[in-house]
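Researcher: Let's do a round of design. I'm pasting the structure tokens now; please hold your answer until I've finished.
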């Protein structure tokens, strides 16, 4: 099946709900009053229970203190209910004495207004002016009452639902991520929120979502939770209070968010990459980064902007793409070696973090005072050819088309002149710029790269034939296919153990090569082989639920069965792209894989939502259970923007 066109039918999208964490600031004075609990009244106002009384969020006192305040809440008519160690006070009524001899640990008010209190082994309900109790065979830590007398009960080692004398173990259906539960609350929408010493979680629509780490919480030791009236919750930890909000948003609005943060903190004279934060977590302390892979990362950003311009016609998108195109072309011009692109360059006076300072940096012979990094890899070349192709096709004017064609010709000639390799300013073949048959087909040290590098060079030659047609390129392409069976090599492009390591970075590079190759190749026999290669690759990658790979697969094949998973990933991806540490290996609701990844890290059997793991681009392993970080790095938004705008362009994602 041929690639989809822009006019293809798209999945229509409505507004979805985006998780957003908003810290509540200026609370030092409240915490000095020993806040013991949060609650939200029936008007949706957050209230604090302290040793000096109950206060609204605006600091106005709602009620004076009662001795040994344990809990508080609100009746349906918004009257305040306070629980002390030996009495219960309902606003406007005389205090009620608690049943004699019991040691209460908490209170919950049902949606109908019934008041429940609990000890470690009993739950009491106030009915017609009297207390009624029923025993539970659980060591109760916390509880919350829902509609129709459904009671959620947290024990030391389990979470239960109690109704009509029946106690059901929730572990049998949906085990909570972490236990024991210290506090819980039920929202009006039926969403259950729990707080633990290892973060918070909510049970929504039968699925748990885990919130932990600095992306979501001031710290992981949760002291109180209070569900709001819109599906979110207020969470109090030892370090502060945060509102986990469910904010209505469209994917286009999310794209605008990532576009803004990329422009504000990640763009360096057209180059786009991650940035460092010299004060971890502080988005005002940006230090731009000249990376090892500026050509690749900038190429992916340029590709996203090219699709964006093709979809929207916005001049600003074209200008962003044009600025990054100039940056990519300069990587070729800066080296003084015809057709050899640098990995990165640093102009005079630039304040940047220099990737891997050392012998691979050279002073440019063509741009005075500019340094560039050599030892260019195939990664960079993949980014260049993809970006040239898309900009030429979707954005370029005639003058730009001429220049792109000239640069593409220079780089392609360089590769062919040097026997399908890259040769740097030192006269040596670079470490990873190798596509020669003698290495790819015959050298055991290159067996892992056989399929990928064959795919890459065939794609690059096909792009060159599109941008700057040449009999030489046609003959080179034909020779690699017919004499060196490179098209057959692509069938096993994705390498897996025991034949090689599972390299997720190579998956990203393969995607960059698949797309232009399958857009441009018209020979039915070769297309059949390339599509077979992509089909095998997608079967392996499908469990990742990747937006990039799933959208690219649909764009190249017309098969849309993975588009839903891609859109879910786009929706659930966090707005915060800082590298906060995210831990999941301790969770009760996940299974760890028996094998570690190529870096020795624990892996999950199934990927989690991007909201629950560390931020990652498409060169990273999404199965990693635990990631490190203190918010000292922020990713740019290209990894999200590219699949989104590609999906829009190919009619897979609605406006």
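Researcher: That's everything. Go ahead.
Model: Designed sequence:
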């Amino acid at each position: 099946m041929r690639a989809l066109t822009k006019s293809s039918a798209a999945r229509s999208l409505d507004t979805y709900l985006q998780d957003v964490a908003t810290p509540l600031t200026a609370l030092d004075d409240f915490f000095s009053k020993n806040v013991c609990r949060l609650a939200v009244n029936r008007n949706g106002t957050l209230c604090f229970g302290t040793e000096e009384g109950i206060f609204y969020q605006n600091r106005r006192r709602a009620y004076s203190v009662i001795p040994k305040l344990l809990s508080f809440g609100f009746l349906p008519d918004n009257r305040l209910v306070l629980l002390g160690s030996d009495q219960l006070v309902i606003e406007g009524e005389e205090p009620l004495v608690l049943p004699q001899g019991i040691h209460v640990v908490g209170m919950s008010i049902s949606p109908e207004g019934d008041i429940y209190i609990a000890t470690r082994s009993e739950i009491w309900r106030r009915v017609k002016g009297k207390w009624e109790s029923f025993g539970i065979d659980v060591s109760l830590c916390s509880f919350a009452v829902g509609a129709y007398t459904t009671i959620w009960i947290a024990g030391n080692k389990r979470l239960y639902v109690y109704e009509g004398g029946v106690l059901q173990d929730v572990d049998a259906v949906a085990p909570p991520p972490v236990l024991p539960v210290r506090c819980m609350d039920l929202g009006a929408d039926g969403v259950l929120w729990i707080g633990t010493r290892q973060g918070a979680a909510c049970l929504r629509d039968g699925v748990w979502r885990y919130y932990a780490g600095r992306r979501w919480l001031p710290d992981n030791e949760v002291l109180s939770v209070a569900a709001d009236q819109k599906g979110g919750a207020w969470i109090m930890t030892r370090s502060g209070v945060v509102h986990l909000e469910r904010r209505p948003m469209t994917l286009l609005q999310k794209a605008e968010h990532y576009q803004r943060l990329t422009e504000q903190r990640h763009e360096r004279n057209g180059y786009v990459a991650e940035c460092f934060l010299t004060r971890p977590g502080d988005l005002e302390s940006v230090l731009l980064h000249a990376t090892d892979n500026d050509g690749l990362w900038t190429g992916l950003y340029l590709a996203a902007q090219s699709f964006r311009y093709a979809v929207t016609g916005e001049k600003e998108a074209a200008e962003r793409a044009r600025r990054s195109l100039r940056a990519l072309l300069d990587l070729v011009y800066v080296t003084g070696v015809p057709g050899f692109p640098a990995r990165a360059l640093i102009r005079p006076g630039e304040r940047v973090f220099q990737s891997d300072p050392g012998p691979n940096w050279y002073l440019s012979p063509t741009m005075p005072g500019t340094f560039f990094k050599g030892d260019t890899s195939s990664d960079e070349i993949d980014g260049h050819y993809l970006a040239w192709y898309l900009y030429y096709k979707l954005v370029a004017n005639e003058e730009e088309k001429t220049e792109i064609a000239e640069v593409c010709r220079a780089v392609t000639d360089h590769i062919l002149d040097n026997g399908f390799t890259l040769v740097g300013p030192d006269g040596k073949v670079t470490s990873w710029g190798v596509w020669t048959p003698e290495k790819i087909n015959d050298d055991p040290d290159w067996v892992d790269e056989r399929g990928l590098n064959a795919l890459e060079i065939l794609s690059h030659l096909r792009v060159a034939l599109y941008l700057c047609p040449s009999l030489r390129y046609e003959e080179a392409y034909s020779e690699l296919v017919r004499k060196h069976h490179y098209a057959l090599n692509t069938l096993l492009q994705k390498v897996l153990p025991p034949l090689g390591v599972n390299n997720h970075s190579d998956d990203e590079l393969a995607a960059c090569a698949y797309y232009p190759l399958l857009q441009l190749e018209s020979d039915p026999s070769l297309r059949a082989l390339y599509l077979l290669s992509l089909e095998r690759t997608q079967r392996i990658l499908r469990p990742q639920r990747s937006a990039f790979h799933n959208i690219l697969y649909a764009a190249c094949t017309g098969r849309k069965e993975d588009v839903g998973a891609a859109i879910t990933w786009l929706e659930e991806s966090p707005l915060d792209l800082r590298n906060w540490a995210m831990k999941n290996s301790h969770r009760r609701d996940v299974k760890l894989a028996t094998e570690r990844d190529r870096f020795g890290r624990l892996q999950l059997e199934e990927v989690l939502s991007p909201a629950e793991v560390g931020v990652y681009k498409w060169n990273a392993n999404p199965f990693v259970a635990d990631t490190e970080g203190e918010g000292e790095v922020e990713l740019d938004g290209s990894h999200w923007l590219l699949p989104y705008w590609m999906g829009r362009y190919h009619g897979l994602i609605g406006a």
